[in-house]
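task queued by scheduler; priority normal; single chain, no ligands, no partner chains; default sampling; output format set to structure tokens
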Amino acid sequence: MICSPFSSTINKQNNYFQGNGYTSPKSYNMQGHNVTNFTGNNLQFTEVEVYQVTERQDETPWRKLPEVKQKVLKSELETYSPPGKLDHVNILLLGAVGSGKSSYFNTINSIFQGRITSVARSGSAEHSLTTTYRLYKIKSTDSRQPLKVRLCDTRGLEDGLNLDLSDLMAIIDGHLPDRFTFNPSVPIRPDIPGYKKNPTLNDRIHCIAFVVDSTAIDVFPDKILQTFKAVQHRVNVQGLPQVVLLTKVDKACEVVSKDVSQLFISSAIRDVVEKTGELLGLPRSHVYPVKNYEDELVLDDNVTIPALTSFVQMTRFADDFLNDCPDLDED
């Protein structure tokens, strides 16, 4: 039956709704009847119910996380020890201004402190709030001793005030000390105070995390993408592992905004993960969607588990790199 009794908005009149469309029961054998006597020659309705059909969200996860609790993930990081003679591994957070680099460190730190913390400067600003190179230590929940993993935060990339490739390689190769202050107008040179001319493997970066705002993937700044690609070209020779931390997922998907537990069910986030992997030429398994602690006042497992999982994976990749590194036993 083809039925469209209403073609526009109607109002109730004299206890009924007057239809202004049509009904055409063509699909049936009318046995001599026609539309007129089938409908009583009117389209008057005493009751009208309107239903909205919405697309049902597929509840099958597009990525399955290990079925472990945050206590197990935290324990793996708290008991982690790098291979060889290294004191710790260094993971570099590299991303545009406002992408969520410092917020990611604050998120990880909050998880281990058991409360929301704000050690690294974060927020919205025209230029990078990070002006110094930081090798952040994270203390174990129980022992209060630093983990043997450091998150290294550097100045946010931006048009006009970008760190050039030589500056970034100075960071990656371990030449800069903790708390080194950047001067956008002065390139990093071997004669600057604190510059390490002969860095050891312990000083170098062991994994790079490109931090990408998931809401900006379709309009990703070309200059920053060029910087990412240039870094990749250089570190691919070294075999340095690379991942993507895909931040602000709650702003990229309304479903996730309302319920973070839907992160790995959301088709919108799955699509962004695929686009990001293609953009940077990395496997989708190296792209980790996370929501940083930004407006929460208490910890939430749905935020904590993806963040911890990404941190664990980066540490494992750093291990893989170091175990294959010819310099491992020299430090």
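post-processing summary
- Residues 70-330 form a domain with the Rossmann fold fold (CATH 3.40.50.300).
- Residues 122-128 have pLDDT under 50 and may be disordered.
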